[in-house]
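ugh ok fine here u go
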Amino acid sequence: MSALFQEKYDFIASDITNNCNLRCPYCLNDYTQISGNTLMEETTFKKVLTLLPLVKDDGFFFFSCLFEPLLHPNFFKLLRLIPEHERQKVFFTTNLAKKLSDESLYELSTSQIHHINISLDSLIPSQFENLRKGARFDIFFDNLERLVKIFAQNKLAPRLHYITVLCKGNLEEVDKLLQVTAEKYLAKEHEFRCFIPFGFIDSTWLHSNNISEAEWKAVKEKLASSPYKYILGDFLSYEHLPDHSIYSEYEKKVYSYPPCLSLIISSSGIVKLLHMPIDISIDLHDISNPYSVFKEILSLQALDIERGKELAKVTQASPEKIRAGWFKIQSEQT
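structure:
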């Protein structure tokens, strides 16, 4: 067996809510299809926690993935349930738009989790509120200023990471955002992302704000000389989505394999195994021992992905050749 084989998840991405207090215009969630807010129950969350030993030591458990976790009225109660020896695998992402007390910020500073992602798209009040639709600039920065002050007093406080979604409205702020978060707001790293122009995004806003690949490259050049730690995501568009296709000569099929092993868990307790030959969803409420079930599934997933990687090595085919071969087979079959 190849050294690539593993029987641990790279990450488990969960959500304890399924809604948000903001409506950012570039959001990857189509909120016309979402109503109400399904809150993860404590009993469900305890089942999720039994899966943490299946995550690699240097892997991650997302306490939130697609939605705002601080909307959960029992956010801190659930956070306290996470075993201390597993907390360095944990992080969550927040828009920091909900007014937080000093007591809450202090509890976050002593939570022992790995890091907190803070969404920040602009330092200009009007632009901030335009991009973080529904947020108030004064509340966000009051939360941030107090959080940073409290975290600075605790050397063991979670790291602070920042995420900025790039659009035409904030391109000129990129270097300033990076500098200010590093020098003033304890940033360990700052990630800049492109958004995918999904069909449900408002077309007028999209036309005014979608950036080109040339503009993305200009940002890349601007950041290259920065002394501060940053991450620049891939340029994304309908034509530039990551491709993990692998063609199976034996089965005459194209499979899409993820670059890592992972689980996605919704606030309702539905676990999805993504990028598999068949769509698999499991309701945590239907199983009494999630650890045993997913340990067995994990072994099968690892074998499946290992097989795909080995196939890719043998064929040594580029994604373009793989797709071309697939279409050729389809045409011959029809």
